[in-house]
Q: What sequence folds into this?
């Protein structure tokens, strides 16, 4: 039987904070401010990441962009393999996204399939001016031609490894860990 074993701590709470602060600065700089900016977190860990970036942007610009919550469950291309009755959570969008600059946020960018599903979900809600992607970790191994505009840390990984982002908002810890499957 295989078990996941912690291998390396990539980021502690301070490292996460610094990465998100840098991403917030890059977002403001690239978009020349926060006019018509909306941060949208992909449920689960993309949501607190969006919230934290919004707080940092407020510190920089004195104005906090609205944040939304995106559930992509019904847009996944592996839905039939997940469960007979997938749990769908509400999507919460504070404003109409048509004509807005959307910053889509997630914890880990891996194959790109989650982001593809999120793009489909966003387009069903309106026609944004532009969609940009911010991720805490980019681990490579893309299966689709998707790349992040803002990356906290690029981490080359092996396919057998798992990148686990743990945030105090959703988990008991605040760190990013590489885990590896090992036989017991």
A:
């Amino acid at each position: 039987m295989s078990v996941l074993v912690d291998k390396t701590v990539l980021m502690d709470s301070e490292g996460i904070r610094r990465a998100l602060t840098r991403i917030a600065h890059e977002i403001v700089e690239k978009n020349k401010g926060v006019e018509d900016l909306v941060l949208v977190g992909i449920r689960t860990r993309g949501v607190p990441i969006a919230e934290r970036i919004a707080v940092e942007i407020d510190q920089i610009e004195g104005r906090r962009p609205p944040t939304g919550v995106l559930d992509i469950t019904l847009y996944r291309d592996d839905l039939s393999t997940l469960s007979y009755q997938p749990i769908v959570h509400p999507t919460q969008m504070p404003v109409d996204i048509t004509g807005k600059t959307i910053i889509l946020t997630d914890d880990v960018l891996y194959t790109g399939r989650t982001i593809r599903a999120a793009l489909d979900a966003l387009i069903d809600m309106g026609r944004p001016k532009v969609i940009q992607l911010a991720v805490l970790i980019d681990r490579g191994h893309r299966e689709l031609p998707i790349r992040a505009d803002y990356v906290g840390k690029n981490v080359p990984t092996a396919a057998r490894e798992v990148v686990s982002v743990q945030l105090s908002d959703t988990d008991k810890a605040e760190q990013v860990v590489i885990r590896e499957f090992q036989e017991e």
In short: The chain has a mean pLDDT of 94. The chain has one domain: 14-159.
